[in-house]
Amino acid sequence: MSVTENGDDRTPSAPKHRQMLALLLMNANQVVSMAQFVEELWEYSPPPRAVAAVHTYVMQLRRILHGGATAVACGRLVTREQGYLLRVEDGELDLHLYESRLRAGRALLDAGEPDAGARLLRTADAMWSGTTGLVDAPTGPLLRAALAPIERERTEATVRRIHAELALGRHQELVSELCALVHQDLTHEELTAQLMLALYRSGRQADALAAFHRLRHALREDLATTPGPDVHRLTTDILTGHPRLEPPTTGHLPLTLDAVPTLVAA
Questions:
Q1: Three-state secondary structure along 225-241?
Q2: Where are the beta strands (DSSP E) in the chain?
């Protein structure tokens, strides 16, 4: 988390302040009620004077954000309807910019422009400085619930972007990235299937099969299940060297991946 204004660092350092600011930013330009603050900060065990503590934290947060000023009217954090609201203008919050680039990248993919769409999705993903959001701020139930769909959306966008890049014949460039992504989630079938295909197309059949066995083991141990039929078919095709797994001969193929037709986003 970082907050800057005209080059000045206004980032709060105390955990409660950071957590409150994160909740306000995740609900930018919307009222966060006192009940929401109490639930986020203390979950199911609020102290007797939780409401008073929230008021104190807000007062301190205002001073930090406003460079030591105490007047409510001089800043963006304002009192509204038994709660507080943080005003954020267009282009100020990186999350909003990320989501805008994500939508634009997906639109390009949908329009049949895999190269431009993949590049824009890569630009969006490069905005993340860590593997997950809010790595340096405490998260309670409300922040965890708000972050979950963002994380899912990011993973789905990554799958779509890699799908486009595989269709453009960039399998060798993708191997290292896919290895890292699969390492973060050993049970993710779509990413493992993409890794298997990239490895196979790079002349690494044995490594592609090893990736399948790691997936099967992780699914059995963690989820008590097995890989789906599409991953099994891909494995069979790798063993037999099916022609449909060959890399494209042109960078202008449609956005389909015959090797794993139902594992990638449409």
A1: CCCCHHHHHHHHHHHHC
A2: 4-5, 8-9, 32-33, 77-80, 83-86
CA distances in angstroms from 176 to 12, 26, 58, 126, listed in the order given: 36, 32, 45, 16
Rounded Cα distance between 196 and 202, Å, is: 10
Cα–Cα distances in angstroms (integers) from residue 152 to residues 145, 156, 172, 204, 248, in the given order: 12, 6, 26, 30, 29
Are 178 and 204 contacting, i.e. CB atoms less than 8 angstroms apart? no
Span between the terminal Cα atoms of the chain, in Å? 34
Q: Which residues contact 58 (CB under 8 A, 6 or more apart)?
A: 20, 77, 84
In this structure, which amino acid lies at residue 32?
Answer: V
pTM of the model: 0.83
Helix, strand, or coil (residue 83)? strand
H or E segment to which residue 148 belongs: helix 141-167
What are the tens digits of pLDDT across the range 151-172?
999 999 999 999 999 999 999 9
How crowded is residue 84: how many other Cβ atoms within 10 Å of its Cβ? 24
